[in-house]
Amino acid sequence: MIGFLGAGRVGAQAALEVASAGIDDVTLVDILPGLAEGEAMDISQKIAETGVDVEVNGSTDFSALRGSDVVVITAGLARKPGMTRMDLLEKNAGIVAAVAKEVAKHAPMAVALTVTNPMDVMNYVVFRKTLFPKGRVVGMGGILDLSRFKSTISAMLDVSHSSVTSLVIGEHGENMLPLPRHTSIGGVPLTKLMDETQIAQANETTRRVAIDVISKKGATVDAPANGVVRMVKAIAWDRKEVIPASAFLEGEYGVEGICIGVPLVLGAKGVERILPLDLDDKEMAQFLRGAKTIREGIASISSLL
Ligand SMILES: NC(=O)c1ccc[n+]([C@@H]2O[C@H](COP(=O)([O-])OP(=O)(O)OC[C@H]3O[C@@H](n4cnc5c(N)ncnc54)[C@H](O)[C@@H]3O)[C@@H](O)[C@H]2O)c1
């Protein structure tokens, strides 16, 4: 069973996609009375017509998460136009600290998949509050940044999305690190097809695009939900998929004691391996800037930990 803690925009959309794809039974939990139940009813009625036989339930009671193999955490506040992810820090830390304890209590064997922003800091809060082994705590951010980088590059070069293979790591925030040096267009290095100015423009667009969406439609929903579904599938089907995602580091990439985005192997056990990568000086500096921001975020909520 896949649990969704938070049945707001991203949680409900991801739950809809997980159920529609028949990945597993779904349970939504939200503190807002009626919301999770209503979403569950709506999704159930959809899949009844399309002929998918999974069970979908909703509740305000955290114990409904019992038996979850994965719990997707989207509980919390979302950004409004003009806000950075870090602006949500204090409020969401309190919410996430509380719900993480519920995950540990009711779904002690689950993989916790953190989505709430600022995601890397919240992923650390989940790690500390669930007391789960580090492999069973992972955060969604890199796959979303990657989908935005791919979308930008394919538009700039007028090539199909599927021709672009790339990687975005680091903080899921202002210091995200798109990696043009590790990007290829059907095997042709990106650096052969774009000059430095164009690459800088692609990086900047990728960084900015989420706030553009928020200012136009109020929230980012479809692309984040897709990232969640991709990760849920990797875990539920033990796909051992290589995905950039937030994990607790103990020296990898020169970083220790925080969660940040790195390429990792995602399977039934959660984070099964973190893959190494050679970063040049400029890339490493950006990665470490992100790590510093996350560390400062964690320090500012230390009283909650
Ligand atoms: N990691 C990413 O890439 C990414 C992408 C998009 C959004 N987000 C983040 O995900 C979070 C959710 O976004 P959204 O647009 O779905 O927001 P939303 O406001 O639509 O939904 C959040 C839900 O959480 C619920 N909630 C609040 N406190 C709760 C608690 N204690 N227990 C259970 N439920 C609780 C609310 O009732 C609400 O339904 C935000 O923090 C947003 O910034 C992250």
Walk me through what this model shows.
The mean pLDDT is 97. The protein is 44% helix and 20% strand. The protein starts with a strand and ends in a 5-residue tail after the last helix. With 305 residues, the protein is an alpha/beta fold. The strands form four sheets. It has a six-stranded parallel β-sheet, with helices on both faces. A three-stranded antiparallel β-sheet has the order 7-10-11. It binds nicotinamide-adenine-dinucleotide (NAD). Residues 5-11, 30-32, 35, 74-79, 88, 92, 95, 98-99, 115-117, 119, 140-141, 144, 172, 219-220, 224 line the site of nicotinamide-adenine-dinucleotide (NAD).
Write a compact overview of the structure shown.
Helices cover 44% and strands 20% of the residues. It is of the alpha/beta class and 305 residues long. α2 (35-50) links the parallel β2 and β3.
Structural class: alpha/beta
Task: Report the principal-axis shape.
Answer: globular
In percent, how much strand structure appears in the residues?
15-25%
* Radius of gyration, CA atoms, in whole angstroms: 19 Å
